User: Fold this.
Amino acid sequence: MTGCGDGWHQPRRAFLKDNGVSDLKPDIVLVHSSDLHVDDDPSEPGYGDDGTSGLRWVLKTARAVDADVVLLVGDTFDNNRQSAAIMQRATALLAEAGRPVVILPGNHDPLTPDSVYRRSGIAGLPHVHVIGLTHDIAVVFPEHELEIWGHAHRDYENMVPLRSPRPRTARWHVALAHGHYEADGVPPLRPSWLISDAEIVATGADYLALGHWNRAAQVGDGAVPAYYSGSPDLAGTVNVVRLSERDGVAVIREKVRQ
Assistant:
């Protein structure tokens, strides 16, 4: 992944045929983040006393780069024991996002009966898509020829984040997973929510957005672009992903706007 760089975002270019008609569709820009840990009692040192800081930073950065879609890949909330007040604050921030937001529940905020996503107004926002709740597995954006899929954490037990990879049904195929990557053949350091090289390749995705690590990293063997974004407080960045008919897939780290 390339280094951080404010001002990376460039105007989308139109490529014209001799008759003046565009030959290529506009690029699609995604902002990918995870592990925001919105909390009534914030423990993340970078957030100060505002438990919604990570969410606010990510959405502000998405506006700055004019993202088409925001991906929040697990642990948006630190736990499901959140008060009505902080859920209302998070809902208000998401309501003002100004673009679609796709949320994958993680191991900290799974879709249990008392889930924050069931108790808040988040799932009722028309532009917010909670995988496992508003959509079973996949969210489709026909205007972008884009499908985004993943398996939500539904409880606190072990699960395989990349099980049963979804076949490609659109030009752009983006997968989400919240779990721990271990290279094939390496004894796992952690017993749960494991992601392997073979499972990454099996997605056939144009981009695999990962969550669960606080640091940003590229993983896998390179056959599929697979990246952890890291958390906005510790990594200090989000991943900006550009899907381009001309240039393919580009991923950079963009400093969060605070």
Q: What stands out?
A: Helices lie at 53-64, 84-95, 116-119, 197-203. The mean pLDDT is 89.
